[in-house]
Amino acid sequence: MALTPKPPVEVIPAGKNLARRKQGAGGGMTVINETFTEYIDAITIANRWSQETEYPKAGTGLPTLVYVDGSEQIPSLFDALKRTHARLLPDCARANFASDQLLQMLVLPPDIPVSYDMAMEMLGVLYGALSKRKKDEDATAMMACADLFNPIDSILGESTGLWQPVPKHPLILALAVKARIAKSPFVSPSELREEMIAVQKKLRLLFNGLERSLEWLRKADRYLFDHDRAAWEAAYTRVGTALYMPPPGEWDEEDEPYHYALEKLWEAKEAAESLPAVACKTKPAKRTRKAKNGG
Predict the structure, then answer these.
(1) Are 61 and 214 in contact (CB under 8 A)?
(2) Lower Cβ count inside 10 Å, N or C end of the chain?
(3) One pLDDT digit (tens) per residue for the chain, 295 residues
């Protein structure tokens, strides 16, 4: 039975702040900062999970599950596995949500793609750092960069193969603008395209690292369930109702005890977390003091 985890923090739909914001209100820096606010959690979690330690092989960052003759064996790494599992598990729901956000950003069309007007606002921050002596030249270059987000530009680029359309997600443009400010503010359309593609590649690396860590955690969780039930149950004492880690696909009959145990844990925690709310709604009986004799 697939359970839907309750997010430990309020989930803001992608683009919600941008959708509510009136055009031209607050300028390009406001657009950039609102975009960062919506995705900062996903990026920081992906970066932290991608750099987990306690792994003996260079470049991976996590203890591994060693496969010997088709079976999982972790004699020398078992303690490291339990430490890392206990450390990552409480943050698993947030990591899953971050993974979903990054996947949508990299694969699916954004809910609110960068428009010409939005690009002009963000690029105004970039070109505002330049000297005003070449105001007309800067305005022309900025409009040429913003034109990269014209839907016709993307259609023609994809149809002819003459140029690569730029990513349309607001976060990618916002990060590219900040990256260019740290380097050289003036950019041509080709330089902006290269910067945005570099940002997209960096986000893909973060997503891949996060996915590897989540996959490791799923395997480690199942391994502990099978080989050290006490450690498995102890780890879940620090997790709220957002504990369920969806498996990668359908499971076999032999997996039923594991998923059944997860379901029972979730139900018990949900019941326990609902008790304070019920208690608050129940008013205590009003007490009256007995009158003293002769009072």
Answers:
(1) no
(2) C
(3) 344 444 433 333 444 444 444 444 457 889 899 999 999 999 999 999 887 744 444 344 455 555 444 455 545 567 778 888 888 888 888 998 999 999 989 988 888 899 989 999 998 888 775 555 566 666 788 888 899 998 888 889 889 988 888 899 999 999 999 998 888 767 788 889 999 999 999 999 999 989 888 888 888 888 888 888 898 888 888 887 665 555 545 556 667 888 888 888 878 877 877 755 444 444 444 444 444 454 4
> Which two three-digit tokens encode residue 280?
């608050």
Structure tokens that stand for 295 in this block: 């009072």
Q: Which residues contact 81 (CB under 8 A, 6 or more apart)?
A: 63, 65, 74, 220, 223, 224
Domain spans of the chain, in order of start: 16-281
pTM to 2 decimals? Answer: 0.73
Distance between CA atoms of residues 263 and 69, nearest Å: 31
